[in-house]
Design brief:
The chain contains 1 helix and 6 strands. The chain has 76 residues and is an alpha/beta fold. The strands form 2 sheets. A 4-stranded parallel sheet has the order 5-2-1-6, with helices on one face. Strands 3-4 form a two-stranded antiparallel ribbon.
Length: 76
């Protein structure tokens, strides 16, 4: 299973990843090759987005498994 890493950073525009996550969710329901999405941060400290969401990264950059990575998404 491949992993798409979604990078989190303080004041990120949390609304920008919505369409991508919807497409990935639909793709996982119909495709033979399943993808997983994990959030990643510089640390595992709480992230506060521009929209006011509080998020905690699943993994740190040091914990990213490059062999399993399908993509690294950088939100504006």
């Amino acid at each position: 299973m491949k992993t798409i890493y979604l990078y989190l950073l303080d004041t990120m525009a949390d609304w920008e990843h919505g369409y991508l996550l919807q497409v990935l969710s639909l793709q996982n329901m119909t495709a033979a090759h399943q993808l997983t999405v994990k959030t990643v941060g510089r640390t595992k400290q709480v992230i506060k987005t521009a929209g006011g969401l509080t998020l905690i990264p699943d993994v740190t950059l040091d914990e990213v498994v490059m062999e399993d990575a399908a993509a690294l998404v950088l939100i504006g």
